[in-house]
Design goal:
With about 625 residues, this protein is α+β, with helices and mostly antiparallel strands. It is built from 17 helices and 29 strands. α5 packs across α13.
Amino acid sequence: MRLLLIHADELRYWVTKKAIKEAEELEKKEDGFEDCLVVFWASEKSDEENLDVISKNAADEIENVARQINAKRIVLYPYVHLLFGAEPSTKTRAIELKDKILDLLKEKGFEVGKAPFGYYKGFELKCKGHPLSELSRVIGEKEVGEEISKALKEEEKLKSYWYILDLEGNLIPVEKFDFSNFKNLKKFADYEIAKVRTVEKEPIHVKLMRKLELADYEPGSDPGNLRWYPKGRLIKSLLEEYVGMLAVKFNAMEVESPVMYDFEHPNLAEYLHRFPARQYIVISGNKKYFLRFAACFGQYLIMRDMTTSYKQLPVRLYELTRYSFRREQKGELVGLRRLRAFTMPDMHTLVKDMEQAKEEFLEQFKLCLKWIKDLGLEFEIAIRFWREFYEENREFAKKLVNLAGKPALIEIWDKRPFYFVMKFEFNVIDTLDKASALSTVQIDVENSERFGLGYYDEEGKRKNGLLLHASISGAIERNIYAILEQEWMKKEEKGKMPVFPLWLSPAQVRLIPVSERFNEYALRLSEELEKEGIRADIDDRNESVSKKIFLAEEEWIPYIVVIGEREMEGKKWKVRIREENGKIVEMSKEELIRTIKEKTKGFPFKSLPLPKLLSKRPKFGK
């Protein structure tokens, strides 16, 4: 079932004529409502399998929105166009579903109205225009094989208060903030407040990940699981290695833990319901297990069995979880942005108390800043607080925005629905104006006690500590999505050629021999570049030089060098530089090597994952 919810000053409709035989009995040819939540609705064929569940879920969601905007009156308006080509339910079942929703809303204490089903109508609508006045929802029933935590259900009902925290520490209600110089922050705020996660149009990165032969959907698996081709696997492995380097340099100790856990474990079962995620469930024998959605459980259980002194704090454990699993809803699954199986670098830190937690939080915030800046990504900040914690730590919040050098979107809850008192996220905005979280750190005040995680103090007494959850990068796949989307935006908005960060480009240099006679020389050059830590390949195919240059540009190759007599004689190369929009610069071989090594210094290197000769490569994907 699809809903479009409009908080309106006024709705007026009038019937023009009957549209279908099964139209419901007409009570009024025209009617009007003031100060109401107008719910445009459309019922799908799949809704018919369980009208009771769908009607209850729809009524609960409508109630949730109505309570947030303080609407007392609700009007249901049939609007089949919301289905976007999906098969509609039968007319009688649609009417039955609508009647069930009306009855449930009446029971919840709302004044309800409706526009008649099965008629052509004209209408006038005056929308109020505040951040929550236009929302959309996809209503379904819980899928087989998933478990929905209490925290996720609570999150859906949670009342949030939204602000912008500026660099002076002023907390400004979002509707009063001047977004004139903060275009992306406005997009981010609108997206977060609306809480619409479904994607109705394929984002550009899906086309790019296929075109660049990075990854694709795997039809032989569950939706939200991908296949990775050699170039995509290279990029992914370099990101994995780099985030691991940062974690180890930060004195985190790398561990490894299982992907599957006992659903009835006394500590884990309780924690499951404090984490807002849908779990995969696996039945083995007569026991129920869940697939991990992060490294939390494994690292908690390792920490529980550690012997830790107060002198050793903070203690950090790190794991690259390939894979973590979350049974995201189908309408939200798209490309690399939101998956059901993903790679999550996960770090947990045991600290002594809240003061040490805040000190560590600041250092991890800086580490996340380094990550996102090293990838060249534009980002927006979200910081989420339990109100009581925010009021006690206003200066701490101000430090964060000053470290980042930009204002942040603040979400505040009156009660604490989760195990953390605060968290931050760095979010990226894509070509569809959707936002996705990457780096994050949370201060956890529950799980050290729940799992018995502590340390021995100066007197040798065992004490509970506090925990920080951190992912320096967020999901690795989502970082690739962010690069693809934002590089494409640079092309669309600024006319720049999209390009991967040089250290991530599968081939950093493309050598193009002008004829077959120069192939052997080009091969020797590529091997020489490889020894210098530079990935170079050779287009030896039977194509014109101009076409080879065009194809290299289509692959986002950073440096293109045509190899002919001049180059064999040792003269300077004419290098086409993608980062400078295809500008041709004369450089010696040594200058090119030095330039690339300087730009990739400090980042990991891996060899080319494909044959150097393009004529020897298969094409991946359909």
